[in-house]
Amino acid sequence: MKSISTNSNLKMMSGQVLNNNGKVSHSQSAEADPSPRQRFQTPIEEAAETTSAVILRNKEMSKRFQLIVKKLSLKRDERSLAAEIINDLTDQLIDFLRKNEKYACFKEVKKLTTGSYYEYVKISSPDEFDVMLIIPLLRIKWEEVEGFSGLFYKLFVSRMPRNDLKMFYLGDCNRISPLKMIAELRTLIKQFLRTSYKGCQKKWNVKLQRKTQGSPAVTLLLWNSEGEQNISVDIVLGLEVPQKWPKCTDDGMNIEEWLSKKTKGDLKHQPFYFVPKQPCRRALAKDLKETWRISFSHIEKTLLMNHGAMKNCCEKGAVHCCRKSCLKLMKHLVHILKEQYPKELSKLHSYCVKTAYFHSMVRRSRDDQWPASKVVECFLNILDDFIEHVEKAELKHFFVATCNLFDSMNFAPKNLKFLLKVLKEQKANQIPAFAPPEEYQQEALVPQSQNLLVKLATSSVILLIIVFFVKIF
Fold it and tell me: What's the pLDDT tens digit per position in 48-83?
């Protein structure tokens, strides 16, 4: 008899716990499992199995997840073309900035590629890129802005003021203005596109998008003459600070059990960055608009690229894990939910998903907890972790532990409650957001159709042979 697997109303019985491997374990006080007949007669609400167990036993779900992961992976030819175009554009821009005579600080600019594409967790298509233009500062002082949990700062040039930054000071003090710097960078990029950009051999067009309020990025939109593909590039100014990380980071990045104490020490000796980002608040005071947000994008990239306790995890010829596949699935789920509920989930950003993912890596630090063959099981673990963060209204910034990305200042309680409801419904109903689109269904049916044709052809040949021998004898 098949076990009950109705898509809705399944609830977990008390006494059941989902362990780190996604399997159901029972507490000592839990009653013995009923017989199949008793289970059939028990109301669905009292079924002695978790929704995760139902999903894991569903072979169709496993196939569906594998197909989705495959579809989310970027195509090699598209990836190569996009990278060629973006690299050509940014290299020409950096060369232009270094040669400009008006702003000496831009003569030292460097490129740092960040974001999901360069972390190899971009989903669906290579249509968005993040490039940080870094200006190194040998000595700088910072002052934390109160009320923002260590994320936002006022910056000052210490000791002797640098002449190449004087034009970006606020008034007579040596405080660096992010608004002035990003405005001048935008002006230089406009000049670059108008006078110096040579384009590329693929005949792509480029234009500067309108400024977005509160965004630290100067966004460029590229499209080819045939209109087949659009690419956006977020160019973010970053001030590189080769000093000890701020005190608010002391309790963050707890990767000792995951990647080792040595790795943590090495990472904390790297510089960190400030980007011209202001808090997302209504009616900001003028002074709060002149703030910088601390950034660890380069460390996030390192953690995603070197994600295994074994240093050769996922390398060619080595054991592969499913960590990145799980992150892609989680990003895909959130993307679908945001499309369905744009108003309620407007504050749910991919950075929340990435942060929760890092916490899941710390919670399950061993490589053998992420086998490539158990992507469904591992994804459900990450989903459970995310639901737990939402339920507790607590998602600590991975580097700045004093900051809660799910507190009432960052995420409205009513919207967080709505998100919790939606996520629980998704799991209870076996992730309907991952219902196979027509293209997935067709792809899944191809092997079955081929098998059917082979069977029909074989049957026809056998039938002809029988008829032939019947006629002879």
Answer: 346 777 777 777 777 888 888 888 876 666 667 777
Both tokens of residue 148?
A: 């923002």
Q: Read off the DSSP letter of residue 158.
A: -
Task: Check: CB of residue 296 under 8 Å from CB of residue 303.
Answer: no
Q: Which of the 8 DSSP states describes residue 168?
A: G
Q: Are 168 and 309 in contact (CB under 8 A)?
A: no
- Mapping DSSP to helix (H, G, I), strand (E, B) and coil, where does residue 383 land? helix
Helices (H), 4-132: 36-41, 51-57, 59-72, 76-99
d(C-alpha 255, C-alpha 268), whole Å: 11
> Which residue, 182, 187, 180, 229, is CA-closest to 204?
229
CA distance 278 to 9: 43
- Least reliable range by pLDDT among 147-156, 163-172, 395-404: 163-172
Return the H-helix or E-strand segment holding 360: helix 350-363
Three state DSSP letters for 58-74: CHHHHHHHHHHHHHHCC
**What pLDDT is attached to residue 352?**
96
Task: Name residues whose C-beta falls within 8 Å of residue 69's C-beta, 6 or more positions apart in sequence.
Answer: 325, 328, 329, 375
In this structure, of 216-225, 244-253, 297-306, the range with the lowest mean pLDDT score is 216-225
- Residue ranges of domains in the chain: 16-57, 73-428, 442-473
Integer Cα distance of 400 and 296 in angstroms: 10
Q: What is the CATH number of domain 73-428?
A: 3.30.460.90
Give the model confidence (pLDDT) of 167-188 as tens digits. 888 876 789 999 999 999 999 9
Indicate whether 322 pLDDT > 60.
Answer: yes
Give strand pairing partners of 210. none
CA-to-CA distance for 166 and 180, rounded, in angstroms? 11
